[in-house]
Write a structure and sequence with these properties.
The complex is a heterodimer of chains A (about 280) and B (about 120). In chain A, about 30% of the residues lie in helices and about 30% in strands. Chain A has about 280 residues and is of the alpha/beta class. Chain A is globular, with a radius of gyration of 21 Å. The two termini of chain A are about 40 Å apart. Chain B is mainly alpha-helical and about 120 residues long. Classes of the chains: A alpha/beta (about 280), B mainly alpha (about 120).
Chain lengths: ~280, ~120
């Protein structure tokens, strides 16, 4: 299968800083990829490059196109929801629907209306009158009605309450995602999406520091709950991280045989957030 | 729907166990359809591949069958087969530890039966 996104030596320099430093990665179709990193790590720059919204050095291929020179063609196949609301405040729901219907060849008005009918959004309502959650609902209705191959989500649920956040991902899985579509999502709310993801990428200081599919993650990394008397043995196996809970130590290991770890204590799959904290240690120091 | 997953077992295994429990409890009967992969993924907020993997294991164990264009259905004889394998598993994996514990506590059969909840006793 052809990769949806291929980056080779992708680099982006700003005046005083390097946002992406010789990045390589591939994203296959039918995947849901989480791009996770601390603030300023380069997530948004990477997404902007994929969408053709910023210039860069190196090679980047998105759906067989070059985002720099073939952006118009690319926009027929790609959708984007940003953390910064881009809908004008004066626009009404029906005007927004009319607009997208006129500019986008792959937009389905019926799909959009069906989605809107399940919300409290009325056709004459203006963006200015909506709560943040309602604006995201409108945005999602417009985007999900477009039959795009790649959906890019940059902090889509930022500032939303739990109800809207759950509904957002539920709608995506129920009504949008299938094997032919690919989703790239960045978020700080890792717990919320960790079971949805097929792949995980950690980005730090402009570099991809972890790139794995979720299944391999469970085989590669392990968290072990170790009693005090075994802690010294555990330390000899070069844990990535150690923390104390209720008089026991929790060690995080990378690439140590699970059967060996079982002799130390109870072995668990680490959560993405624990893995993230361990990987990013010292980022702000 | 909110659900907490256990970190020591892969989610697809936990999902499989849920379906198994539903078949044993009669919440899913033979010939009943399973909810679609998409529905389960959306309800539990998990990846569709995880759901497919759980369903595939049930197919491999012949508890569930795929009917082209219609989805997944509980097979005839699934409950019987499950009862058999679950009983065997209980006797092999759980009973030795339980037996050891009963011995340790000095609980005999007469006491256990006397203390058994009334409504479940009638099943045996």
């Amino acid at each position: 299968m052809n990769a949806v996104v291929t980056a080779n030596g992708l680099t982006k320099r700003y005046k005083n800083a390097i946002a992406l430093d010789q990045v390589h990665f591939e994203i296959q179709p039918g995947r849901i990829v989480g791009l996770i990193g601390p603030n300023g790590a380069g997530k948004t720059t990477a997404l902007k490059a994929i969408l053709g919204l910023t210039d860069f050095q190196g090679q980047l291929n998105v759906l067989g196109l070059d985002p720099r020179s073939q952006r118009n063609k690319l926009m027929e196949e790609v959708c984007f929801i940003a953390d910064v609301a881009v809908l004008p405040r004066w626009i009404r729901v029906r005007e927004a629907v009319d607009f997208v219907a006129n500019v986008h060849p792959r937009f389905s008005r019926d799909k959009c209306q069906a989605f809107l009918s399940r919300t409290k959004l009325a056709p004459d309502m203006r963006v200015r009158q909506m709560s943040k959650g309602m604006i995201v609902q409108l945005h999602l209705a417009l985007v999900m009605a477009i039959d795009a191959k790649l959906l890019v989500l940059d902090e889509p649920t930022l500032g939303l309450d739990i109800l809207y956040r759950k509904q957002f991902y539920q709608s995506l899985l129920e009504e949008y995602f299938d094997d032919n579509k690919t989703i790239i999502v960045t978020t700080h709310q890792v717990e919320e999406i960790e079971h949805i993801l097929t792949d995980l990428m950690f980005i730090r200081d402009g570099k991809i520091v972890l790139n794995t599919d979720m299944e391999a993650l469970g085989e590669r990394f392990a968290e072990v709950l170790v009693n005090a008397d075994m802690a010294a043995n555990a330390r000899q196996l070069n844990p990535l991280d150690e923390r104390q809970v209720f008089g026991k130590s929790i060690f995080l290991f990378d690439g140590v045989d699970h059967s060996r770890l079982q002799t130390l204590g109870e072995v668990r799959r680490p959560s993405v957030s624990d893995l993230f904290v361990a990987t990013m240690k010292g980022t702000y120091a | 729907m909110s659900i907490t997953w256990n970190d020591s077992v892969p989610i697809y295994r936990q999902l499989r166990e849920r379906v198994v429990a539903m078949i044993l409890d009669g919440a899913l009967n033979e010939g009943d359809p399973l909810p679609s992969v998409r529905q389960v993924a959306a309800d539990f907020q998990i990846n569709p591949l995880t759901v497919s993997k759980a369903y595939q294991e049930l197919v491999d164990d012949q508890l569930v069958e795929k009917r082209r264009g219609l989805g997944m259905f509980v097979t005839d004889g699934a409950r019987e087969a499950l009862l058999k394998s679950e009983r065997e598993r209980f006797l092999r994996e759980e009973w030795p530890a339980l037996y050891a514990r009963l011995q340790r506590l000095g609980l005999d059969l007469k006491t256990l039966l006397r203390e058994a909840p009334q409504d479940t006793e009638s099943h045996s």
